[in-house]
Amino acid sequence: MQNETNDSSARVYHPLESVEDVEEFYQAIRREKLTHKLAPERPYCYWTIETYDKSNGIRGGGGLGVLAADMRRVAEQLQVPFVLVTPFYPWESHQKMENLKQIDFHTEKSYEDFGFNFVDTINIQTSTGAVALDVVEKRLGSTRFLCITEPNFGELYAGESGSDHRLYQEVSLGFGGYKALKLVGCRPGIIQLNEVATFFAAVARLDELVSSGMDFYEAVVYTRKHTLYTNHTLVQAAEATFNYGQFERYVFPNIKSVAVRRWLSDKFTNGMIRLSTPTVEIAELRSGVSKLHARVANYHDINGNKVKFKAVTNGIHLRTWVLPEIMDYYHQHEILDKFDLPSTRQFEEKVNKISANDIRHLKRIGRAKLNEVLQGRTDQYGNSIQIPEDAMLFDFKRRFVDYKRPWLPFTEPERLARILREQDAHYILAGRVHMGDAVMFEKLMGLLKLIDENAVLRERVHYLPDYDEELGWALSLGANASINTPIVGLEACGTSWMKDIANLGLLISTHDGGVADCPADSYLSIDGKSESAEAKQLYEQMEVAGRAWRNDFDLEYWIHRELLAYLDVVSGTRMMRDYLNFLF
């Protein structure tokens, strides 16, 4: 490997430590300083119902939570004053396998165990009285977690969508989180609402302004100009609805201003409300999480007019998700600069110099890391598995929902078995079924039965329950090719595929979500006009991927194409730069 080094001091994983570095980053965004708009006492405030940050004790449900954690990590690296307002859930769900059946169980969590400090207790109101919420925080560089919690808060997405408990959680996060922010002496420079579950944070701000004497319409204008709504869901019909009685029990008791209550009451239609309707009205700034998503998101305001969204494609915190040796390589060869953005100097030339030997060497290191993680995991049979160093490994690692189609590679079991046998390949299937999704749970059980009935698949296909960010990280490092098969038009962005590309893996995907930011010839594309045609193409592309890993020219060709097209797209620094450009 060129310029190989074992000196860990050569790595550049520290945040931007000097004032000059920070100002250089800001100047690279817009030739001006942002310090008068963002400061520790006036930070970038990011509200999210879900965060996925295992090291800090908060386990999310999928990509929404992973994105939230990466936003904070990027902010810390770039020294952006940033507060992530989120619940600390005292319970989290897990899965295990027994006799080819997935069993759910729960574990209790304590914020003290993860370095959070108790700040104080605040109250939110319900129609039957006050509910006390603990405010806890953890500071990391220029950023902090600011969490609300209480023993009965439950786990993430507890209760049915549209239930009283779900509304209670969202009200607690919005009104309680806003009180928590004031408690620690912060006023938001900007409020980013990560999906509509965080809507009540903007209502809390509007209510404070009006209750403090500001004219209602002036307060609306002020709140709108300082609120960004980021949508992650393509279809509005999938959103929960609440009834007026629920708002009387949980929402209206927290609103002091009669004008604000009247404004919110007017958003109901036939006694029901979708939170996206008032959210798109209270947030003047609206973003979708990929170019395709921003273009096709089907959301409307109270008058029925379609709402426009600005595209800010999701990114990942590269220093969290990419093998350290690969990050070293990117920096040493000046493929990435100190901000983790593609170098402006001969970027294409430098990427095209990455050799097949370098790629294979780095992926062998990644395979070893994967096998370390797999030592603590078991498959559907309760067995610990290890993937041989030179074996081909395909993976599917994402949330198990219908539109992502985890079953597509199993459309023709015999053909899949032949591919795995001929290529000396293994296939790892990892993901989580949302609690209560009985239909998807039954499909997963049927898939495991199909695998068990085929001797080759039983040997080479491994389902790993209790999917989490550690396993997702390890698979990105150690797999040769990842499979991403959402029905085109239903994936808002996705980020698992970003980790695979950045870790020098091949991507086999439909042209959807953030993948569609770049041309379909940038990766191993599936573009069939029917599901059967897509399954056929999927098998063909799996064969192409297997041949590529055995052929230097083909491997370099596809890895170079992916990196040239997507390395800027997947950069979390690019995402933060785009948000700051949009906001300021």
Brief summary:
The protein has 584 residues and is an alpha/beta fold. The chain has helices spanning 19-29, 63-77, 164-183, 199-211, 216-225, 244-250, 258-265, 276-282, 291-296, 318-321, 324-332, 347-351, 356-374, 413-422, 438-452, 455-460, 469-478, 496-502, 531-548, 552-570, 572-583; strands at 44-48, 82-87, 91-98, 101-108, 117-126, 129-140, 143-149, 190-194, 227-230, 241-243, 272-274, 285-288, 310-311, 392-397, 425-430, 461-464, 481-484, 506-510, 524-526. Strands 5-6-7-2-1-8-9-12-13 form a nine-stranded mixed beta sheet, with helices on both faces. Strands 16-15-14-17-18-19 form a six-stranded parallel beta sheet, with helices on both faces.
Molecular structure report:
The protein is built from 21 helices and 19 strands. The strands form 4 sheets. Strands 5-6-7-2-1-8-9-12-13 form a 9-stranded mixed sheet, sandwiched between helices. A 6-stranded parallel sheet has the order 16-15-14-17-18-19, with helices on both faces. By secondary structure, it is of the alpha/beta class. The model is unreliable at 1-17 (pLDDT under 50). It folds into 2 domains: 32-312, Rossmann fold, CATH 3.40.50; 319-570, Glycogen Phosphorylase B (Rossmann fold), CATH 3.40.50.2000. It has helices at 19-29, 63-77, 164-183, 199-211, 216-225, 244-250, 258-265, 276-282, 291-296, 318-321, 324-332, 347-351, 356-374, 413-422, 438-452, 455-460, 469-478, 496-502, 531-548, 552-570, 572-583, and strands at residues 44-48, 82-87, 91-98, 101-108, 117-126, 129-140, 143-149, 190-194, 227-230, 241-243, 272-274, 285-288, 310-311, 392-397, 425-430, 461-464, 481-484, 506-510, 524-526. A hairpin with a 2-residue loop joins strand 5 and strand 6.
